[in-house]
Amino acid sequence: MGALRIEFEGAVYHIAARGNHREHIYRDAMDRQRFIALMQRYKERYSVNIYAYVLMDNHYQMVIETPLGNLTKFMLGLQSHYTNYR
After folding, report:
1. Burial of 31 by CB count in 10 Å (0-12 exposed, 13-18 middle, 19+ buried)?
2. Is the pLDDT of residue 8 over 50?
3. Are 46 and 26 in contact (CB under 8 A)?
4. Mean pLDDT, residues 64-73
5. Is residue 62's pLDDT more than 60?
6. CA nearest neighbour of 7 among 79, 65, 81, 84
7. Distance between alpha carbon 84 and the CA centroid of its chain, in Å?
8. Which residue of 11, 28, 36, 45 shows the fewest CB atoms closer than 10 Å?
9. Within its chain, how far is the Cα of 72 from the centroid?
10. Taking the model in full, what pTM does it have?
11. Burial of 55 (0-12, 13-18, 19+ CB in 10 A)
């Protein structure tokens, strides 16, 4: 199976991720702060530029740029770390 998205250096993406069955993915303000801290960690680790984001109860959206063409690594790190935290 191929990559879900074409990845290349300098690409700008609109990312949306929703909780399973549209369930809430944040329990409280602390969860939202944890997610934001993880975004910052993985932004720095993978040199991703985050231009905008919104955290809704059951999903989030981001506009990001991947100067190194590493969208999958960024998303995998962010989502798996937050899922394990939850």
Report:
1. middle
2. yes
3. no
4. 96
5. yes
6. 65
7. 14
8. 28
9. 10
10. 0.87
11. middle
Tell which phi-psi region holds residue 22, choosing left (phi > 0), alpha (psi between -120 and 50) or beta.
left
Q: Pull the structure tokens for residue 23.
A: 């369930």
Cα 68 to Cα 47: distance, rounded to the nearest angstrom: 7
Inter-residue contact 33 to 23 (CB < 8 Å) = no
| Torsion angle defined by CA atoms of residues 7, 12, 14 and 18, in that order, rounded to the nearest 10 degrees | 50
Q: Which domains does the chain have, with CATH numbers?
A: 11-85 (3.30.70.1290)
Tell me the CA distances in angstroms from 31 to 1, 21, 61, one per residue in order.
33, 19, 16
The answer to whether the beta carbons of residues 35 and 61 sit under 8 Å apart is no
- For residues 65 and 11, is the Cβ–Cβ distance under 8 A? yes
